């Protein structure tokens, strides 16, 4: 997808979100999952800025909504939520490791 659409194509972000879910879930590779989610978030935010700039609307105008911007905003919220979950998992793993060392 990167080769065809480029590094900042929204389909790359969707793929990164799926990869982050796999890494953060069954594979329990939280660091890689976090990187995937953060890169997807970066792409989504760039796309949202691109859309709002095309319409001459500043990113701070909360009254501007169309189907595509609402959809991308949902993806942004999902990415932020996933980043929070993964960071919590990393913190828990770190705390568990410290607790085990003290025993």
Using brief descriptors, characterize the structure shown.
mainly alpha, 4 helices, elongated, 103 residues, single chain
Overall description:
It is a single chain. The chain is built from 4 helices and no strands. It has helices at residues 2-5, 10-24, 30-54, 67-102. The longest helix is centred in the C-terminal third of the chain and has 36 residues, at 67-102. The protein is elongated and about 55 Å long. The mean pLDDT is 86.
What are the SSEs and their pairings?
Blueprint: H1 2-5, H2 10-24, H3 30-54, H4 67-102
> Which regions are unreliable across 5 or more consecutive residues at pLDDT < 50?
none
By secondary-structure content and strand pairing, the structural class works out as mainly alpha
Number of DSSP helices?
Answer: 4
Envelope shape:
elongated
Helix content: over 70%
In terms of quaternary structure, the protein is: single chain
- How large a portion of the residues is in β-strands, by DSSP E? under 5%
How many strand units? 0
Summarize the structure.
This protein is mainly alpha-helical and 103 residues long. The chain has helices at 2-5, 10-24, 30-54, 67-102. It has 4 helices and no strands.
């Amino acid at each position: 997808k990167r080769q065809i659409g480029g590094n900042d194509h929204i389909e790359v972000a969707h793929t990164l979100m799926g990869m982050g879910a796999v890494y953060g879930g069954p594979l329990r590779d939280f660091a890689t999952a976090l990187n995937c989610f953060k890169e997807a978030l970066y792409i989504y935010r760039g796309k949202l800025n691109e859309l709002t700039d095309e319409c001459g609307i500043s990113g701070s105008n909360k009254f501007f909504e169309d189907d595509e911007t609402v959809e991308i905003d949902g993806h942004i919220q999902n990415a932020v939520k996933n980043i929070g979950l993964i960071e919590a998992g990393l913190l828990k793993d770190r705390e568990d490791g410290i607790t085990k060392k003290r025993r």
